[in-house]
């Protein structure tokens, strides 16, 4: 497996880890009666702010991950891997790992800067695929 595809796999594992942690926290806060139901009604209990933040961090990764995956696949399929693309992929993964505690602990404005860095890395992959 190429280094870029390895980083894509690691980003996928990060995605799964975020889902597990956020789901566990929601299950603790709302109870399994609600979380295993079809959720046709609003929950009878509220979530802790930290749980809401973890769910929003996960939702943000749902939005960001396709950009990263598409960029990695473009570079891989066109055989344009370079130090720049590998560096961008590493920085993306590190930024996304840092994004989780940044969101969980409300690191303002750092959370937004970390998000921008990850998006810049995705843009770098797309630009590198075009040149």
TrEMBL record:
InterPro entries, A to Z = MAPEG-like_dom_sf (IPR023352), Membr-assoc_MAPEG (IPR001129)
Keywords tagged on the record? Membrane, Transmembrane, Transmembrane helix
The UniProt entry lists the main location of this chain as membrane
Signal sequence coordinates: none
User: Where's it found, cell-wise?
Assistant: Membrane
Gene3D superfamilies to which the protein is assigned, alphabetical: Membrane associated eicosanoid/glutathione metabolism-like domain
TM spans (from-to): 61-77, 89-107, 113-130
Domain of life per record: Bacteria
Q: Name one GO cellular component term.
A: membrane
Question: Mind telling me which PANTHER family this protein's record contains?
Answer: BLR7753 PROTEIN, INNER MEMBRANE PROTEIN
Q: This protein is called what?
A: MAPEG family protein
């Amino acid at each position: 497996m190429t280094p870029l595809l390895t980083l894509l796999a690691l980003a996928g594992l990060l995605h799964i880890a975020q889902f597990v942690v956020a789901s566990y926290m929601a299950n603790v806060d709302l109870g399994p009666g609600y979380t295993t139901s079809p959720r046709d009604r609003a929950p009878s209990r509220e979530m802790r702010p930290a749980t809401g933040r973890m769910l929003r961090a996960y939702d943000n990764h749902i939005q960001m991950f396709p950009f990263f995956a598409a960029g990695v696949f473009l570079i891989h399929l066109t055989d344009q891997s370079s130090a720049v693309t590998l560096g961008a992929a590493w920085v993306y993964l590190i930024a996304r790992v840092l994004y989780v505690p940044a969101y969980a602990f409300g690191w303002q404005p750092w959370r937004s800067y970390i998000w921008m860095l990850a998006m810049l890395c995705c843009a770098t992959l797309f630009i590198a695929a075009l040149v």
